[in-house]
Amino acid sequence: MIHPSRRAFLRLGASVAAAAALPSSWAEASTDDSFQSSRNGAFIRLDSNENAYGPSPRVAASIRSALDAINRYPRMEREALAERIALLSRVSREQLILGCGSTELLRAAANAFLGKGKQLVQASPTFGAMDHYARAVGSDVVPVPLTGGFAHDLDGMLARINASTGLVYICNPNNPTASLTPRKDLEAFLRQLPVSTHVLIDEAYHHFAGSSGMYASFIDHRLADERLIVTRTFSKAYGLAGLRLGYAVSSPKTIEHMRMLMTEENINAVGAQAAITALADVDGVNDLVQRNANDRQEFFNQAMARALKPIDSHANFVLMNTLHPAKDVARHLREQGVLIAAGFPRMDTYIRVSLGRPEEMRAFWQTLDKLPYPKNVMSH
Question: Each residue of 275-333: pLDDT tens digit?
C-alpha cells in the first residue's frame, strides 16, 4: 500500500513532468502548476499569483445564480459586460475587446502585429506568454534585462527597436519582480517609438499598485496614441482566474484588427455575470487589496527577520533572493507540499512567492526554515 503522502508526491511529480513539457518561457512564469493539487487540496499553491481568498461573497453568490443559465450562449451577458467596462473606462464600445483571460489578448496582439520578419522587444525576466506567442508566429524575440532597480530598461529597449519591431511588451507591475516602471518614463518612451511599432502594456496587477507619482494606469489616465494597447484581467484582484476573463482597451482601428483574430464565442456566461458583479462590488475589491497589502507587509516582516531582502512588491506576490540556488529551494519546498516559482533568467537564487492565506504563509516560512543551510542565513 502506498502511503498517502507518497501518493500525493507521486501525483505532484507527474504534474511537474507535464509542466516541463511547456515552452521554457512559460515555465519561467509559472512553475510546478499542479491540476491535481487544486482538486485534492494536498498542496499549498503559492506559484501562480492567484488570489488566495477567491471572489468576494457577493461575487460568489452571483456565480451560483448564473449556473441556472449555462444552457444559453452568453451573447447578452458578453455585451452587458463590455458596455459596463467601457463605461467605467470612459471609452467607446469600439475601443474595447473581451478575451478568455488577458493571455488570449496577448496572443491576438502577437498575431496582429508580429510574424516572420518582425520582432518583439520585451524585458527579461517578464511574463512569458508573449514570448511564446511571438515565436509561434515566427517572430524574433529581443529580451532586454531589467535595470538594477528592477524597472524596464527603456533606454536599452529603445536601442534595440528598429523598423522591424512590430510590438513592445511591458508588464507593469512586472511579473516576476512585482516592480514598477515610472509612468513618466513610459510616456517619454512611447513618444520616441517608430510609428509602426505597437506597445502592449499589461496591467494584470493594476489594483495592487495603488496610485502615486510613479504609477498611473494607461486605462484610467489614457494617452491619445493609436499604437497603445492596455490589457487587464479578472484573474487577480477579483479572484476569477478559473473563469478566464480579461479585456483590452485601444483605438477602434487596433481593436478591430485584434477582434478579427479572436474566437467568436470566447466568453462564458458564468464568468461574464461574475465580472459584472465584481465591477459593481467596489468594497469587495478594496477589502481584498487592503488584505493583500497587509499580507505583503507581513511577508516582508518575516523575510527581514531571517536576514532576507525581497524586492519591493507592488503586486500580490514577492520575488525574493534566497541566497542559495533557487531550484534547490523550490525542490525542498515542493517535497514538503509547498509550490512556488523559480528559474528566472539571471536570477538563479530568486524565488517568486504568491501571497497566500495566513495559515499558508506560516507553513511556507516553517518549511523554508527547514532548509539544510546554515541557520545564521535563514533564521528568526
Answer: 999 999 999 999 999 999 999 999 999 999 999 989 999 999 999 999 999 999 999 99
Beta bridge partners of 143: 122
What is the C-alpha separation between 373 and 380, in angstroms, rounded?
14
CA-based nearest residue to 235, from 226, 246, 224: 246
- DSSP, collapsed to helix, strand or coil, labels residue 328 as helix
Are 179 and 39 part of one and the same domain?
no
H helices present in 72-153, as ranges: 75-89, 101-113, 129-136
* CA-based radius of gyration for the chain: 21
Longest Cα–Cα distance in the chain: 66
pTM over 0.85: yes
Distance CA 261, CA 306 (A): 49
DSSP label at residue 147: P
Helices within 41-182 (DSSP H only): 57-66, 75-89, 101-113, 129-136, 154-160
Pairing status of strand 347-354 against strand 341-344: antiparallel
Say yes or no: 332 and 252 in one domain.
no
Q: Are residues 259 and 294 in the same domain?
A: no
Residue 46 structural domain: 4-54+283-368
pLDDT value for 374: 62
On the 0-12 / 13-18 / 19+ scale of CB atoms within 10 A, 96 is buried
Q: Is 192's pLDDT higher than 80?
A: yes
Q: Which amino acid is at 373?
A: Y
Determine the Cα–Cα distance for residues 367 and 355; give it in Å rounded to an integer: 15
Burial of 253 (0-12, 13-18, 19+ CB in 10 A): exposed
Phi, psi of 320 (to 5 degrees): -130, 135
pLDDT at 34: 39
- Domain match, 267 and 323 both: no
- Identify the CA nearest to 169 among candidates 198, 147, 140: 198
Contact (Cβ atoms closer than 8 angstroms) between residue 115 and residue 121: no
Print burial letters for 152-161: b (CB count within 10 Å at least 16), e (below 16).
Answer: bbbeebbeeb
Domain boundary among 253, 281, 309: 281
